[in-house]
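Bumping my old thread because nobody answered last time. Still need a sequence for this structure:
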């Protein structure tokens, strides 16, 4: 009789768990994001450091929240050889999938930072967010490390300059997100 009662209790507990799981699954609604990615600025992390030869530099990490309705974000040519073919080849506009422009405050107004009369940028590639190829809405954070900014008297960026960044991403269908603007930072201002 004891064995029968234990089996019946396990069956009851298992059925209750299954009903709870199905109930929770039924309450879950997939987010309704568009096929064009959306970005929300989340933060700009700044770490002022020194090299072994005592040169000061800022290490910056841009954090943006993304939302994408079909999950086609990122490029990973080592796993997906098509991610280095046109329109994503080195010679193409969309070789990069994150575009970051740099601005410096001069007389209270932000202007593009110029290096050899060309606007400075930190464009780059971030890897595929989803590797299984499913078309599904995705949401998450991208932590994008910007190149180090070294203290150098010949640089267009000097100690105490106030910078900000504009960023956008592009998905594999070439949908461009709207630009987001970062908060301001003071170069080499963090101890």
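Sorry it took so long. Here it is:
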């Amino acid at each position: 009789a004891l064995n029968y009662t234990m089996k019946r209790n396990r069956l009851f507990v298992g059925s209750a768990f299954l009903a709870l799981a199905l109930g929770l699954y039924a309450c879950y609604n997939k987010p309704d994001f568009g096929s064009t990615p959306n970005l929300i600025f989340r933060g700009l992390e700044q770490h002022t450091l020194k090299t072994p030869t005592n040169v000061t530099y800022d290490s910056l990490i841009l954090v943006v929240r993304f939302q994408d309705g079909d999950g086609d974000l990122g490029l990973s040519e080592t796993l997906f050889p098509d991610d280095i073919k046109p329109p994503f080849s080195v010679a193409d506009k969309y070789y990069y999938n994150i575009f970051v422009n740099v601005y410096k405050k001069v007389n209270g107004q932000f202007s593009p930072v110029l290096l050899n009369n060309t606007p400075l940028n930190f464009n780059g590639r971030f890897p595929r967010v989803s590797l299984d190829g499913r078309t599904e809405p995705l949401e998450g954070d991208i932590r994008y490390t910007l190149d180090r900014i070294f203290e150098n008297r010949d640089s267009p960026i000097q100690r105490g300059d106030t910078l900000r960044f504009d960023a956008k991403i592009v998905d594999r269908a070439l949908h461009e997100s709207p630009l987001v603007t970062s908060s301001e930072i003071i170069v080499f201002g963090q101890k």
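The two ends are 72 Å apart (CA to CA). Let me know if any region looks off to you.
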